[in-house]
Every structure is written in structure tokens, then in C-alpha cells.
Amino acid sequence: MSTPTASPQTFSNSHRSALSPLTQAPDFTLRCTPDQSVSLNEFRGRPVVLAFYPADWSPVCGDQMTLYNEMLDEFQEFQAELVGISVDGAWCHAAFAKENKLHFPLLADFEPKGAVARAYGVYDGKEGMCERALFVIDPNGIIHWSYVSPVGVNPGANGILSALEDLEAKGETAVATK
Length: 178
Known about the structure:
Glutaredoxin; 5-stranded mixed sheet; two-stranded antiparallel ribbon; 9 strands
């Protein structure tokens, strides 16, 4: 798969107030199922891809999450964890993930509504939903790359892969474990 050659480590399209590269990623704990939660700090030591999206069941969101599901093996080659986040509830996510056969967690930024999206600067208060935003976080919890796409446009995966390739080139895809 061809990817852009521009170095993504400091790229951000600076959409509104989205957090920029070299910023500490805000920690969070969100529901991944009605009775289980996931915290960002659980992934410390490996890269994390956060894919904020407006809503389950919308055509673009379904296509985007299905694409990422198909690319899980490529993300995992970089030891990266993929997490989807929207303001939909855990039950809605469960049905959406089952229908689309998704094999990565969808986290519910449901209550307080959009709190994590707000912390990352990608909550659209007027529409009451997350913006379509991507963050690649390095193993130390620092944002390496960010991108905010127009709500009706699937951002694809090339930017994510370029950012992960850049982390790997810098030797930052995983922190050595003892």
C-alpha cells in the first residue's frame, strides 16, 4: 500500500482546537461494553490509534470502521492498538460492532456526553457528537500525529499507517518490556 512520504510526526491539520502532536494524550476510562471499561493507560508501552467518529450506523462511519477492521493486521504489525470512540452508548456500540463484525473496542463517550472528545478538542457541541478525528499516540502517551477529517469524508488509513511507520523508524513502536 502506498503512503504519503511527508513525515507525519508533527503534522496536524489544526482543526479548531484538536490536540496537536507532542502533546500528552489525556487519559480516560470509558465503557467498551455495558459492564466493562477500558482506560487509555492500559495500552501504555505500545502505540494507540484513537478513531473518533460521529455516530454508529451512519454510512461514512460504518465504512470507516469496517476499513479499519480490515486493516487490523497491518496496525498490529506496528504493535498498535486501535480504539473507536463516539458519543453513542455501550449497547449501541455492541449492536454496531456485532452487525459489522468489528474486532476492536468501540468506547462510549456517553456520559458525561463527549467528555473525552472535549479533552481531545474534537467535540462538536452544536451537533452533539464527536468530530471525525484520528490520533496516533506513541508508547509513552504522547500524541504523535492527529488529523480531523470533514464529517462526511472517510479519512482512510494512509495517514495512520504513515504515522505508525514514522514511529517504527524512530524505534518508538513499543517500549521494551522486562
